[in-house]
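Form P-L/3: holo structure prediction, ligand adenosine-5'-diphosphate.
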Amino acid sequence: MKKIINDPAAVVAESLRGLALAHADLLRVQEDPAVVVRADAPLPGKVAVISGGGSGHEPLHGGFVGPGMLHAAVPGEVFTSPTPDAVQAAVSATTGEAGALLIVKNYTGDVLNFETAAELAAADGQDVRSVVIDDDVAVADSTFTAGRRGVGGTVLLEKLTGAAAERGDSLDQVEALARKIVGQVRSMGVALTAPTVPHVGEPSFTLAEDEIEFGIGIHGEPGRERIPAESADALVRRLLSAVTEDLPFERGDEVLLFTNSMGGTPQLELYLAHGIAERLLAERGITVRRRLVGPYVTSLEMQGISLTLMKLDDELIELWDAPVRTAALRWGV
Amino acid sequence: MKKIINDPAAVVAESLRGLALAHADLLRVQEDPAVVVRADAPLPGKVAVISGGGSGHEPLHGGFVGPGMLHAAVPGEVFTSPTPDAVQAAVSATTGEAGALLIVKNYTGDVLNFETAAELAAADGQDVRSVVIDDDVAVADSTFTAGRRGVGGTVLLEKLTGAAAERGDSLDQVEALARKIVGQVRSMGVALTAPTVPHVGEPSFTLAEDEIEFGIGIHGEPGRERIPAESADALVRRLLSAVTEDLPFERGDEVLLFTNSMGGTPQLELYLAHGIAERLLAERGITVRRRLVGPYVTSLEMQGISLTLMKLDDELIELWDAPVRTAALRWGV
Amino acid sequence: MGCSATDIAEALRSAAAVIDEHRDELVELDREIGDGDHGENMKRGFTAVLSTLDTAVPDTPGAVLKVAATTLISKVGGAAGPLYGTAFLRAATALGDRSELDAADVATALRAALEGVQARGKAEQGDKTMVDALVPAVAAVEAAKGGSVAEVLAAAADAADEGARSTVDLVARKGRASYLGERSAGHLDPGARSTALLVRSFAEAAK
Amino acid sequence: MGCSATDIAEALRSAAAVIDEHRDELVELDREIGDGDHGENMKRGFTAVLSTLDTAVPDTPGAVLKVAATTLISKVGGAAGPLYGTAFLRAATALGDRSELDAADVATALRAALEGVQARGKAEQGDKTMVDALVPAVAAVEAAKGGSVAEVLAAAADAADEGARSTVDLVARKGRASYLGERSAGHLDPGARSTALLVRSFAEAAK
Ligand SMILES: Nc1ncnc2c1ncn2[C@@H]1O[C@H](COP(=O)(O)OP(=O)(O)O)[C@@H](O)[C@H]1O
Ligand SMILES: Nc1ncnc2c1ncn2[C@@H]1O[C@H](COP(=O)(O)OP(=O)(O)O)[C@@H](O)[C@H]1O
Ligand SMILES: [Mg+2]
Ligand SMILES: [Mg+2]
Ligand SMILES: [Mg+2]
Ligand SMILES: [Mg+2]
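OUTPUT (holo model):
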């Protein structure tokens, strides 16, 4: 393992120090437990939108803290959900009368830790709700299993609920919006190479030179199947079909297309894939009204991409276009 | 080689198609020769700021086309300088009475091709100047060699001259500003892994599991020396010392610190390195007034980072803070 | 051991040592069918338990287990953190303020722990999780209720080992390994393994 | 051959075939001490020259070389594009509107090409560039001025080969390989190699 780190156990804490120094205008970092808080929090009268999860997916979530998006992010250790006390610290730092919405990616660890934190907050008389995002169609959904994972759709959910909170929506409204979004966003990813977790020291899995992992998660968890490497045209078609068939997305739908790099894929390839996805959607009569292209939900240095589609309506478009000013996403301000 | 591509010879063209679709509000892409042009170009009365070079360094340069930065970018094939006719096409699409400034990274190919284009433009009666950026302290500077390479400093140069052009500075002024910046920006990089050029199909060089290439260029050209992998603290100190000693940067100086990912380095490590660099600069009595952290001058999927320092004064700070709206860099708008 | 607060603290200290020793094994097991953090998470958690106990040892077994629980909850993270945290918390609550434990108390505590894990994690036996180590451990303790604390824990440890080993053939239906589907078979579940290690370390401490 | 415009076009066509054949070799040489694109760049350029010539062959040798030059300039890119482009352009200019070339013309053209490369690239012999293949080629042609076009080109090709080989021991002072410093020694310069291939292909076409 070659990495630009000191002690593997201190990677997250040291990285947060750099984040705080780089973006003092947007955020501050509380230590022990680690929480990234919007510089101007708490915002009286506004619903606090809080998210978090294991580190190693940057800019998710800390890179999305700022006006128009998250009020706080709770970074766990690498690929490890944060603990309830850290979530509680985020709630304390941001939440007032208007309450808070916790955005939780659907992994057993995240759900359990955030659930515990929400219970503790409720016991303190705070109005804290959580919404679980599970947009990854790679995993068969079933109540007998851990269910689908939260992946690329998380960014869209954080942006849109953040915008709703910013304009002053109530917790009921922000929560309802969140549930609506979860219902109409779907993703699918592929990995060409594996990430290496600092404290593990070797790649999370091994792929042959001509193999790719289709349906990969964002923790180097394996995907649906291991298939031979194929052309970008074939691969993007495969990803997109998995996504469109799931909901389904149909002729006439208006969508946001989010082409995400898992971290190690060069931008040259990412835009190439995006172009193919746009073409295929046009062929299917699905109109791309908004797009996002970049490394936003990553898995350390893993090479790969994911495609996320979300159905759009006028309300969602307005919220998407609303100003946002964070380390990783900014427009309109 | 595993990449998300179709025909290796068509990678750049296909990727530009995706770029155009993703950012139609900011730019348009002309084909054959390939040029990325600001959507609202030409801008009457304003100096056109144009840059370009081999592809594979994205978001450099196409990701910096837009209000407040580049008027056009000329992407060559991967790691191959563009040809004079492509540069000429960029000039035609953007340049009016106010003239144009060509920003050229100091590589033999880039210098020769842009030089030829500038001569042709001059012959057409256009006022086109070029400035060569050579901020990489890894390479010993000498008139008997190819001289120092242009690396991270290029982004700063493009941002600042773009801002000057946007506020209406004359070509003389923009050119003088560019020369001033070139005189006070320095960079140094390191690679942990090698990039793979699509049409080559194998990594540009081979590093052992415990080796890093110190003083790497952005084309997978080798660096100053191959050294054993070391801790982030030691590595950042080594990079920073090379940069500060070169100009030199001294106690009392005010600087912009740009911590750049070469593409494959996770953001977690990048911010970690940034935090160390800030701490070391503080120790040396050098004040960081502005910072930029991210993958802005990359070398495909290469893992590594570079540090760039630029001396700041009030004028440069004002230009840095001026609004910019491009695919990769935005603030103030 | 008898089974006072100090004994429980001692048992937790030896558990911490065992987890430390097996950290790499647990990382490797989790790397195979999960995300590779189980060993590191458990080590971080039990190291924190150690320093909590260094500050002060509460004066009942239940209170000792309770500080262990809250420490684990706030230090482990991931799925295992809340699950082990709940297990220790429920065990602590079940023990109330008793100051010396007998074999029946061990049975009560272990069953409460299992119920806590299942209440939170919704896993059944056969889902390839720590539940597969806990269920036989509880059954063994309940079956051996007549014996000494040392004896029932020894039986529990054997049963937990057996239960953990049984996860090798299973296809995971809960936790991260479930994403692997059929490909999860053929691997030992890391959480079942750490449960077996913990029960064994308690049994050894009770000798 | 005689040396009419058609012959020059034919020579360029065979040069394109040779470059195509050696594309991977040139990529590999450039990967070792540069950025790995030389073979691809040259192939792209000469493929374009082929299609330019398919459209129409101008009627003097100089005019043929001039369209080759402008095609190379607009298609090759990198360092080699402007350098070869200038070489062909200067050769074309030196030949004016002569319609049949003799050995003296070949000498004139080749020297003009060399001067063009040096004017643009500022490299001296010994800097480990294409200049190291061109300088001996020009010298050989000038020395053999009495012979036929085929003879002088054969001498030039041998000398260019020799000159290219001589780059192996050199430390690069120009072009991308110069960043390697001492580490550039022990490798054949890709541009010198492509120059030698081009001169050889002209010599073969002239037979
Ligand atoms: N729903 C569940 N019920 C019981 N145990 C579970 C459940 N989900 C996961 N586990 C246990 O947790 C272990 C993984 O823990 P750990 O690696 O620390 O967490 P994570 O999966 O979040 O990375 C699994 O091996 C399994 O034994
Ligand atoms: N200044 C120069 N003068 C003459 N030849 C040069 C010079 N710089 C580079 N070359 C030649 O160009 C070759 C590299 O060409 P190419 O790989 O196409 O361009 P780039 O280095 O821009 O990738 C070198 O092998 C060398 O022979
Ligand atoms: Mg985990
Ligand atoms: Mg090149
Ligand atoms: Mg795990
Ligand atoms: Mg080259």
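COMMENT: Residues A 81, 108-109; C 30, 34-35, 37-38, 41, 78-80, 83, 117, 121-123, 129-131, 174-176, 189-192 surround adenosine-5'-diphosphate (ligand 1) (CB under 6 Å).
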